[in-house]
Amino acid sequence: MIDENLLLDFGAKKISFSKGDQLFREGESALNFYQVVSGEIKMNNYNEDGKEFIQGIFAMGQSFGEPPLLANVKYPANAEAISDAEVLQLSKENFLKLLTSNPAVHLKITETLAKRLFYKAIMVSEISSQEPEHRILRILDYLKKYVHKVEGKFAYRVDLTRQQLADLTGLRVETVIRATKSLEKKGEVQIKKRKLYR
């Protein structure tokens, strides 16, 4: 999203994380801007029973955690590396300087946040009222179009486990398995060598 060299010019540090490492935890103060260089990062919460709910998954070139940073509030979720990952970290002070001196970047960040807000509004509606198959297609289409920017029928290989799909949609794993099999019969997805394609 933001040019890597521009972030480095403003003092960003490139940090490596191993799969499972926490970048920040729910309730901590938001102190930095983060952008993924490689790998994937998820933002998640756990309910009282320990069930995970994935708020979002962020891949190369995507940033995360900006709303609490800009709103001066604590993080509402955890950030965790799904795979080995490299991330650019820029202090809040320098991030604000970057935005002030680069209006085009500021506009791009605003656009990105607006798209995420739109996605959240759709997902809240989906989770509260829609059938499992519909929820799964919505999240797959969002990841295909906006996260991985893939076009074409069955061109997007879903690199999420059934458990992660369940955590993203508020469903049980068994429900995800049944729904994806049903979606395959309807020609909405393909399952090849245990991998899901949309």
Automatic annotation (TrEMBL):
SUPFAM superfamilies named in the record: cAMP-binding domain-like, Winged helix' DNA-binding domain
A cellular component annotation (GO) from this entry: cytosol
Residues annotated as domain Cyclic nucleotide-binding: 1-116
UniProt keyword annotation of DNA-binding present: yes
Statement: the UniProt record of this protein carries the keyword Cell wall biogenesis/degradation: no
Pfam families the UniProt entry points to: cNMP_binding, HTH_Crp_2
GO-annotated molecular function: DNA binding; DNA-binding transcription factor activity; kinase activity
Residues covered by the HTH crp-type domain: 130-198
Domain of life: Bacteria
InterPro entries: cNMP-bd_dom (IPR000595), cNMP-bd_dom_sf (IPR018490), Env_Response_Regulators (IPR050397), HTH_CRP (IPR012318), RmlC-like_jellyroll (IPR014710), WH_DNA-bd_sf (IPR036390)
Keywords in alphabetical order: DNA-binding, Kinase, Transcription, Transcription regulation, Transferase
PANTHER family in the record: CRP FAMILY TRANSCRIPTIONAL REGULATORY PROTEIN, DNA-BINDING TRANSCRIPTIONAL DUAL REGULATOR CRP
Protein name: cAMP-binding domain of CRP or a regulatory subunit of cAMP-dependent protein kinases
UniProt source species: Salinimicrobium catena
Lineage: Bacteria, Pseudomonadati, Bacteroidota, Flavobacteriia, Flavobacteriales
